[in-house]
């Protein structure tokens, strides 16, 4: 009895190319949530007693916010699509090399290195362990004791006879406070709004570079460094672990006692 399969059966595969694009949440994995989300309060802050004029503060806030918003939109409109095309080709090449070249090389290396690791470990245990155990007897009689005494005079100390006249102290305090207050208000009234405009453009450029250049570079680096990390870890575990385990027997007889007296 022949089994018939429907020839007109279609498999619907939901691919990443056909899924709907969320225009509201453009950072669903929150990779830039705490990095470039910069508001006016994160850049410009006036502590108590150092306030500019209310009008200057309001205009500076609006200038910074609007300039940062539109500067980023203009930069992304000009360079966003070319950068997306470049990163698309780059990650396609990285993915191809990783799947078809890097991972098979790592798998073949892991198979071969297991045999080398066992032979190397046996050699270290055979020839190095007895030598380092004997060498460790040189330090077997070492005893180390540390004491640290902390007195109150070592922490708190006030000199005597270093007081100015009361009137001079009061006038100096008032002069400093008033001059600092009004000088800051004058400077902020003159340079506050231009500085807010400059910082708005600057943080817009920083945000654009971070979103369209820095983060993709980091992602591509993380893909490649994982392969290097696995190979490097295997080499360290194969050649260094047995040697340092044997070398540790030199210091196996040392005893250290720590005491702290307050």
From TrEMBL:
Family matches, as InterPro entries: Caveolin (IPR001612), Caveolin_CS (IPR018361)
Membrane topology classification: Peripheral membrane protein
GO cellular component terms, semicolon-separated: caveola; focal adhesion; Golgi membrane; sarcolemma
UniProt entry keywords in alphabetical sequence: Cell membrane, Golgi apparatus, Isopeptide bond, Membrane, Transmembrane, Transmembrane helix, Ubl conjugation
Any Gene Ontology biological process: regulation of cytosolic calcium ion concentration
Gene Ontology molecular function, alphabetical: molecular adaptor activity; transmembrane transporter binding
Protein's cellular compartments: Cell membrane, Sarcolemma; Cell membrane; Golgi apparatus membrane; Membrane, Caveola
Transmembrane segments: 77-103, 186-213
Database matches in Pfam families: Caveolin
Chain coiled-coil ranges: none
Job of this protein: May act as a scaffolding protein within caveolar membranes. Interacts directly with G-protein alpha subunits and can functionally regulate their activity. May also regulate voltage-gated potassium channels. Plays a role in the sarcolemma repair mechanism of both skeletal muscle and cardiomyocytes that permits rapid resealing of membranes disrupted by mechanical stress. Mediates the recruitment of CAVIN2 and CAVIN3 proteins to the caveolae.
Family: Belongs to the caveolin family.
Protein name: Caveolin-3
Originating species: Acipenser ruthenus
């Amino acid at each position: 009895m022949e089994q018939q399969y429907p020839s007109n059966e279609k498999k619907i595969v939901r691919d990443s190319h056909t899924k709907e694009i969320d225009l509201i949440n453009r950072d669903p994995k929150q990779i830039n949530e705490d990095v470039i989300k910069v508001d006016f309060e994160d850049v410009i802050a006036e502590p108590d007693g150092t306030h500019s004029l209310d009008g200057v503060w309001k205009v500076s806030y609006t200038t910074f916010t609007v300039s940062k918003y539109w500067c980023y939109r203009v930069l992304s409109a000009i360079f966003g699509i070319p950068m997306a095309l470049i990163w698309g080709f780059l990650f396609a090449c990285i993915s191809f090399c990783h799947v078809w070249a890097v991972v098979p090389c790592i798998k073949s290396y892991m198979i071969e290195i297991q045999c080398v690791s066992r032979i190397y470990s046996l050699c270290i245990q055979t020839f190095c362990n007895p030598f380092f155990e004997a060498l460790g007897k040189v330090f077997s009689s070492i005893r180390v004791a540390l004491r640290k005494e902390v007195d109150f005079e070592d922490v708190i100390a006030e000199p005597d006879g270093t007081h100015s006249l009361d009137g001079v102290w009061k006038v100096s305090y008032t002069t400093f406070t008033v001059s600092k207050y009004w000088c800051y208000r004058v400077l902020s009234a003159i340079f506050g709004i231009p500085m807010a405009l400059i910082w708005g453009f600057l943080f817009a450029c920083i945000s654009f570079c971070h979103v369209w250049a820095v983060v993709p570079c980091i992602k591509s680096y993380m893909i490649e460094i994982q392969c290097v990390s696995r190979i490097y870890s295997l080499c360290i575990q194969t050649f260094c672990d047995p040697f340092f385990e044997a070398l540790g027997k030199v210091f196996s007889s040392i005893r250290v006692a720590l005491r702290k007296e307050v």
